[in-house]
Amino acid sequence: MALINHLKWRYATKQFDSSKKLDEENITELLKGMNLAPSSMGLQPFEFIVVQNEELRKQLREHSYNQPQITDASHLMVIAAKTTISKKYVEDFISRTAQLRGVSIESLQGYQDMIMGFLDGKTDDEIFTWNQKQCYIVLGILLSLCAEMKIDACPMEGFIPEKYNEILELHEDNLHATVIVALGYRSENDDYADLEKTRHHLDEITSLRY
Ligand SMILES: Cc1cc2nc3c(=O)[nH]c(=O)nc-3n(C[C@H](O)[C@H](O)[C@H](O)COP(=O)(O)O)c2cc1C
After folding, report:
1. Which residue minimizes the CA distance to atom 16 of ligand 1?
2. Helix 109-120 vs helix 87-101: angle between axes, to the nearest 10 degrees?
3. How far, in Å, from the CA of 123 to the mean position of ligand 1?
4. Domain of 126: which CATH number?
5. pLDDT-derived band of residue 81, with 50, 70 and 90 as boundaries?
6. Is residue 43 part of a domain?
7. Residue pLDDT, tens place only, 116-148
8. Residue 175 domain boundaries
């Protein structure tokens, strides 16, 4: 299966070749794919921030345990969770769905009530955690897209989210940097590329209850 081979090819890239840059078309393609990630109730409680600016990335690296991928990769993708989900956000989602599907907003009232009921039953912290979980689905899709497009990537949680929020002014949009991905092309000198993957045997982590 082609995707399995692509996934074997990919690895969390430690050293990028900073002379090699992704085309803007690649970035657009990745964003389109990320936008197709499923999310709970379809709410997409996240946004994507693409950082290329060198000065910004220098600052971000200082708050990423000085990991070189931040500045040496071609681009840095920040997947940011919404800190809240407002009633207005849900109403906009419903009206967009109605418009795209050619149905009335009234016909989706039950769905809207179900979403609002679900959100009302949760604390702010629970909603924020839920939003952050959705970001990881996007992460999985992005890494698979990269593998298929032969773009190297390093998923990263080794950064201080609050500093990212500050530097990228995410607070203002009620966003929180959740997980980041350095994107680009591997350096020939990255020894990690040839390491055998450490994974469980399938039977250690799988049980079939047919
Ligand atoms: C959520 C997440 C956070 C990670 N954070 C970092 C990180 O901050 N720095 C880094 O070099 N690698 C990071 N990694 C990469 C993992 O160490 C790597 O995926 C794992 O060791 C498996 O290796 P492979 O991806 O090369 O197959 C992260 C991976 C994930 C999924």
Report:
1. 12
2. 150
3. 30
4. 3.40.109.10
5. very high
6. yes
7. 999 999 999 999 999 999 999 999 999 999 999
8. 2-91+121-205
